[in-house]
Amino acid sequence: MNQCSLQGSTTKPDFFNSEANTHSLSYTQREKKKKKSDRNMASSLNVLSQPCQPTILPSFTCSSSSSSSNTNSITVPSSNNFKFHFSSSKSGSGSSWLQHGFNSVNTAGINEYRRGPLHSVFPTKPAQVSSVQDLFEFICSGPLLEKIGVTAEMVAESIDKWLLYGRLLSQLFQLNELYLTVPQKARIYHYYIPVFLWCEDQIKQHRSTFKNEEDIPPLVVGFSAPQGCGKTTLVFALDFLFQKTGRKSATISIDDFYLTAEGQAKLREANPGNALLEFRGNAGSHDLPLSVETLTALSKLTREGMKMKPPRYDKSAFSGRGDRADPSTWPEVEGPLTVVLFEGWMLGFKPLPKEIVKAVDPQLETVNKNLEGYYDAWDKFIKSWIVIKIKDPSCVYQWRLQAEIAMREAGKPGMSDDEVRDFVSRYLPAYNAYLPTLYLEGPNGSDPKRLLTIEIDEGRNPILAA
């Protein structure tokens, strides 16, 4: 059973117990705490007794499912009993939780971190079935709340914020906030919003270490996660929420630091017969001086008017071998930055003893040596970490295959099954060698107090750790 959803569950979680007395409160005590939380929630959010009108921000381009000519406003049928309808559909693994065509096929905007127009589809009839109370209970059943230190009482007191964030994300992913399926609801309320709240808390802690008159550098949050597990979409969602809540953010990927096509050719020539360095990907195929230059420049964007252009990489160049994108296409980032979201499949990997990596794959010995320079180029800039943990690296192959099949079905160029197998095989040795240490000890140089580990299932949804 998908542990992110309530489907099939016959036991209702006790949302209202504190960590200290989860098993000791009597039924009466639990009911009193429940009523108190209910009162807090009702007093903090008046949508329970008043009509709800979605917040429309100036940069939104919202459209109705009908052919209305007015694309600048959204209306929801007024009701004194505002209700949500949540479908019980079990469909939705991977990016299929997204509908209206926003899936792995057309995520070029995500990969380039472009903020294009947003669309929301709203019904012409009143919403049905579930209430804010039901949504509250669904939120409290999420697997990440305890990890991020959020209690049911805290959710009740800030339910209006949860609703706002849920509305914004629904608009971003072209979903109808009143008619979410369970997979969609889980992805938004069990995953993206809790991670965003954790990031907000990390930013608060980071900024508290500086004096009022000091320039405060942006917090760099590192996302270490295998390919295909949804980290780019997660970062895209977080970046969007930061922008819409008035904080300036920047996004970068380790992909942005790949060697140029010429540099990659030289690396290949210097390591003949090493399949792990034949193409971009493993340690040794990145421009580390460019990484240091970029991360240093981003860290200095502390005031209005300061600008810089982080690099971007064009994976389609040279028949898919890739090359650094033309600098004229690099996005401009302007200060003062609050946060930098830095994602990559091998962020935080630590060099291991030679005999360990050779036992996994003899070709890893050179990669392991190259990895020694990555802490100073990447990891030392990262102050807060999110590690997305998988049980089996073979999931990477299935996730990549899903993406390529979707691209082919959409009439876009995509790798064949054999090409996908060959592509992923060049990464698996590093996963098998370095992930156990990453999961056991955390990223290279990380502070356990500033680390959030999220275990996900084959559907890319967070689950309760075993």
Describe this protein's structure.
- The chain is α/β, with parallel strands linked by helices and 466 residues long.
- It has two domains: 27-193, no CATH class; 217-455, P-loop containing nucleotide triphosphate hydrolases (Rossmann fold, 3-Layer(aba) Sandwich), CATH 3.40.50.
- Helices cover 36% and strands 8% of the residues.
- The chain has 15 helices and nine strands.
- The strands form three sheets. A five-stranded parallel sheet has the order 2-7-1-8-9.
- Strand 4 and strand 5 form a beta hairpin.
- It starts with 26 loop residues before the first helix and ends in an 11-residue tail after the last strand.
- Mean pLDDT is 79; it is low at 1-28, 41-82, 88-94 and 100-129.
Q: Could you name the CATH homologous superfamily of the largest domain?
A: P-loop containing nucleotide triphosphate hydrolases
On the 0-100 scale, what is the average pLDDT? 79
CATH architecture of the largest domain: 3-Layer(aba) Sandwich
* CATH class division of the largest domain: Alpha Beta
